[in-house]
Design a protein that fits this description.
4-stranded antiparallel beta sheet
Amino acid sequence: QVQLVESGGGLVQAGGSLRLSCAASGRTFSIFAMGWFRQAPGKEREFVARIRWSGGSTSYADSVKGRFSISRDNAKNTVYLQMNSLKPEDTAVYYCAAGASGAWIDWGQGTQVTVSS
């Protein structure tokens, strides 16, 4: 099992930036990829971005391409989500997830991001 702790959420005005962090502990050797997801009120959880733990290849949801950037620090077992040019529609609870064996196996508790217009 991998334990994940997110931080860095908060309230920001539209056009602003935030950086989320997710620190992993436990069976981190089993991690194949790390991802960020978000869930807005009344909506289903959706994919935001992912990064392979080895090699660092990334992928993004179309809605955040060019504005968000995912990165990782393997030495610190931490993944980051840099969010720029934030929009009110980015308001959601953001969750970090650890992927292994083709599935997202562990989730963090979530961190609230609120973008005011």
